[in-house]
Amino acid sequence: MSQQEILAELAQIVNEIAGVPAGDVTLDKSFVDDLDVDSLSMVEIATAAEDKFGVRIPDEDLKDLKTVGDAVSFIEKAGVAA
Amino acid sequence: MRVVVTGLGATTPLGGDVASTWAGLLEARSGVRRLDAEWAAQLPVRIAAPAAVDPGDVLDRVEARTLDRSQQLALVAAREAWADAGFSADAGVDPDRLAVVVASGIGGVLTLLTQYDVLRERGARRVSPHTVPMLMPNGPAATVGLALIARAGVHTPVSACASGAEAIALALDLLRAGRADVVVAGGTEAAIASLPLAGFAAMRALSTRDDEPEAASRPYDKARDGFVLGEGAALLVLETEEHARSRGARVYAELAGAGISADAHHVAAPEPTGAGAARALSLAMRDAGLQPRDVVHVTAHATSTPLGDVAEARALRTALGDAASTVPVTATKSCTGHLLGAAGALEAAVTVLSLHNGVVPPTRNLDDPDDEVGLDVVRFEPRALPKGGAALSNSFGFGGHNVTLAFKAVG
Lengths: 82, 411
Hints:
The complex is a heterodimer of chains A (82) and B (411). Chain A contains four helices and no strands. Chain A has helices at residues 3-18, 39-53, 59-62, 68-81. Chain B has two domains: 3-246, Peroxisomal Thiolase, Chain A, domain 1 (3-Layer(aba) Sandwich); 258-406, Peroxisomal Thiolase, Chain A, domain 1 (3-Layer(aba) Sandwich), CATH 3.40.47.10. In chain B, helix 4 (69-84) runs parallel beside helix 7 (139-148). With 411 residues, chain B is of the alpha/beta class. Chain B is globular and about 65 Å long. The chains are: A mainly alpha (82), B alpha/beta (411).
């Protein structure tokens, strides 16, 4: 799965859970500061991403996923590893 | 200090707002429906009174998805009440002087059940992080407090089916104690699900008239056989008279007093003489400075259970004396079903409207009045009320909780 495909899918998830327009979900955006995603919704997004991409996002990694780009890179690497 | 009612909001089995609910009551329409969903197929009772308007259709999708249905209903009613009181985002109240009291009898039981299914079927890691804020009983109060930006305190009294009335009694205390200028108070409930229905049915508390849903809730009728579970929310905007006058608010009625007692008799059965309920009635009248002759109307708790309705009638005769045989009484659960933790708030709102509009909605399904009741129960047609006077609203809950609210007509 390409970075662009992961981003598109992740944007759908963020839209579904937090109501952020998918077009606003770009690599440079911070989940908390730019997209106004709270900590509970962040957990939900991570869980949905695990289901969608077939990866595991441990809590200790989740706290480092500050931006959409961080998440896309993590999923990309985790997906390759899997 | 006088406390007045300046705003009303409700979403009920009769309609998605106060106006449609009131119209439904005047027509004595039934909100009781057959439950055709698969989850209800094996239940001993397959009727209920669901909210007429799905709150999910009214609220923003993202806003609604992290709220339990009881919270969604409360939010819908809160916004209506807030606007009805003449407040807006621009013209509000000092947040430090605004309190919220929203009760629930059971809390977020739909969330609890849904997430328990998730836990069993998909494992702990798939349980929603919103589960706890959605199931906690204070969740609806918190939802309303966040929406209206209330910082003078957000509270949740829980006393089963008296909860909604107890919320309003607590609001009266807060205002009298000077802890707030405005309090948004009431109750909400969304418990039409397999486990609550099975539990109430196991107590033999529910009507089993599955083949005639609209005839199932029949307070004071000889053929009554239990209550019908309803859902919805009702909230009142209460404020000090001084605050209401200073902003030129329309005043529906005065919340003149409240009476609270406990039976200490049995966890579920009503005290058969109605002594505890009579004490709540007497305390409310004393608090409001009322004599029995001042009472022009009573909205009864009357859930349509064989024992409860008669015990309440005894309580009214004890507290009101001879006046009990002539004061018009109504039992709106005949139309709405029993909204549990929202019931007392909805009936308070209806009592306020009865005083304000000068008319009492009739009790539905009262075809053959029980001889043991001995009250002047309004049936068939609405009954006009004289100008002025006071009205009482009773609420009782499992646990032996008794709450009576006293309202006075204004202007």
